[in-house]
Amino acid sequence: MTIGSAGEHTWRYRLWRHLCETYEGPFTFVGPREELYDKTADAPASYAYAEPGFPRRHLAGWGEGWLHMAPLIGEAVRAHRADVLLVSLGLIDLGFYTNAEQTAENVRAFVAAAREAKPRICMVLLPVIPNIRALADAPFAEQVDRFNVLLAKAVADLDEPRSPILLASPPQSYDLDADTYDGTHPNASGEHRIAGAFAGAMYEAWGVGQPYAAGTG
User: Which helix (H) or strand (E) holds 146?
Assistant: First the structure.
């Protein structure tokens, strides 16, 4: 949902366009990766963004979640001098790797590693957006709900003045039929809604930018 696949804009692009138009301070996106996922190659091997002219660097991976990112985040923060982490993770963890409690422990490990690398790092965490599987798989849906409760608790426990953590609101009016192309991955409308969730959290808590306009980007 964050890395995107070949031919997409990504919500990262939508957010960048929004911030360019509403935020006066300097900013850029950083990270060790630039790739999109190539469905034909079944690998993160594409650079075919729908709009390539933006800071494309990131730390997202197709099929990677909190489990995979917790060991990577410290070095990424150190090497790329990140100030703010925008994180949308958890669906793949719950679907294939860890239960809600284990996933929440990986959230805490991620936060600890990021802070070890930069004690004043800021973070915005997005709750898991239930996908099409949750409509038919009640135990999975329960795990998603349980994790989102534990994520909120982790944010409440770990938030501190020198290293604030925001829990973004779920994307407003997110609809799997209208906002995804396969019941999971966002289409253009979904990209806007996810970008709007991050933008709204940063504006409301930190005064960054302005409220998100759906047509931005």
Answer: helix 138-158
